[in-house]
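QA checklist item 7 of 12: single-chain prediction sanity check.
[x] sequence parsed
[x] length recorded as 183
[x] structure emitted
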Amino acid sequence: MGVALADAVLRHGGMPLIVSGPTALAYPPQADVHWVETTEQMLEKCVQLFPICAGVIGAAAPCDFKPLLFSQNKITKSAGQNVTFQFFPTPDILAALGSIKRLDQWSVAFALETDEGKRRALGKMQQKNCDFIVLNNPDSIGRDEASFQIFDAVGNMRTAFHGSKHRLADELIGIVSARNVPH
C-alpha cells in the first residue's frame, strides 16, 4: 500500500516523505524514505517530520502490542514448564499526530476490520482526529486487489469499490487533494 501511495503522490505532483519499517518492497527513488525498526522509532520520526508535511496517511501497520520482557537469549524448554508472555500496547502513532495536527494539515487512517467495520472505522477516525479513513478487510493483506471504502470526518462515504491498491491510492490522493473536508 505504501508503494502505491508513494506512486500516486508523485503522479499528483507531490513529494512523498515515507517513514517505513523493514520491507522487501522498493519505494520510488524520488521518495524521501526514513527507515525505522520499532513502533517507538516510527512515532519519534513521524513527530519530528510531521510539522513540515501537508498531511499524513497512516498506511503502515506497526505492531499494536509488544512483549513486556525481551530476552537476548533463547528461552529454553524445560519439562513440565509452561511459559506465559505478557504484552503491552505500543504508542498510537496517528493519535499522537492527530493531537498536534494544525488546521492546515490533514490525516488519513486505515482500518482493517471484520465485524461492525463502519462503526469501528468511524470511531477510530474520531479517536485519532483524522479527516478520512479507508476501511478494508483482512482479505487485502498481501493482495493487490480488495474492497475499499473511504469515509470523511463526518461519516460520509466518499467512495467504495473493489480494485487494486494503486486505484485506491489514486482515489485517496484525489480526495485529499480536493481537501473539501467537512468539519
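[x] summary fact logged: The beta strands are 17-20, 32-35, 55-58, 65-67, 87-89, 106-112, 132-136, 145-152, 157-164.
[ ] second reviewer sign-off
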